[in-house]
Amino acid sequence: MTRTRAYRNGVLEAEDFPPEELSTYLRDTGVTVWLDLCAPGEADLAVVSEELGLHRLAVEDAVSEHQRSKLDRYDTHSFLTAWGVRLENGVLAADEVDAFITERALVTVRKSEDFDIEAVVARWDSAAELAKSGVGFLVHGLLDYVVDGYFEAVQSLDDQIEGLEDSVFADKVDHRDMQRRSLHLRKSLVKLRRVVLPMREVVNSLMRRDVGLADETMTPYFQDVYDHVLRASEWTESLRDLVTTIRETQLAIQGNRLNIIMKKLTGWAAIIAVPTAITGFYGQNVPYPGYDQWWGFIVSTAAIVVIAGALYVLFKRRDWL
């Protein structure tokens, strides 16, 4: 599946033309083209590589998977790797997208259809007045969509963490569910951190003047994307710390509750030890005072009640029960 576009002097001129016509459009210095490929093989990229003179290493990176977010610079073009993120049933999923950036062409390579390229196209159409900036305009729309996805993901994770935080102090807590949710949130935040942190360096590199991508018009927009990346990375770091704090708080609360339970059990054990000791003495084959007499039974019973009651009052005053 391929998508193509051609802009002439900032105006959309053609769309969905064959990739073989790239060189025809690029003969005109006023034309900027975009080509999108979904899950291509080396043979599919061979045509584009020949048309644009792409470096062999960049083509290999575009075909292989699990690349780190990065920006590689070659003599005639740059190669960009980024990750779009989304939440599926509360679990973070990431989709890799690569891009070949030349002076007047942008080629995006998606590893799967899960990366919504139509949303990127919609961003370009919503800011058509910036299309005169050429490839910089196209790259900005792509990065803006990716970074906004980071914000949506981190906001959703923040909401989940707030719910987890509220359940920590509930009267009845499902500790197994709490552990499972904490683990899933931490894994999602670690995965998000791995794709967000390198993007700071990527966007910063694209803004450099020697790259020649961001002109005077697009520089503020790239700066805005860079600020969003910084905020997303800082937010992600704070949420990771918060999840760790919640988990430590949960363990501390569990420890405190266990101590309270043990304190109460110990207090009741001390109270129960009184009648056990007294009746144990009378169970021996020794004629204690009151042995085989009604008054002996009454005295021993009264001693049990008085001593146990005194211990109960004492422990209650000290908040042991």
Automatic annotation (TrEMBL):
Cite the entry's keywords alphabetically.
Cell membrane, Membrane, Transmembrane, Transmembrane helix, Transport
Read off the Pfam families from this record: CorA (PF01544)
Query: How is this protein positioned relative to the membrane?
Result: Multi-pass membrane protein
What's the superkingdom here? Bacteria
Question: What are the record's GO terms for cellular component?
Answer: plasma membrane
Which Gene Ontology terms cover its molecular function? cobalt ion binding; cobalt ion transmembrane transporter activity; magnesium ion binding; magnesium ion transmembrane transporter activity
Task: Tell me where the transmembrane regions lie.
Answer: 265-282, 294-315
The family database entries (SUPFAM superfamilies) matched by this protein are listed as:
CorA soluble domain-like, Magnesium transport protein CorA, transmembrane region
What InterPro entries does the annotation carry?
A: CorA_cytoplasmic_dom, CorA_TM1_TM2, MgTranspt_CorA/ZnTranspt_ZntB
Task: Family membership, please give it.
Answer: Belongs to the CorA metal ion transporter (MIT) (TC 1.A.35) family.
List the protein's name: Magnesium transporter
Name the species this protein comes from. Answer: Amycolatopsis sacchari
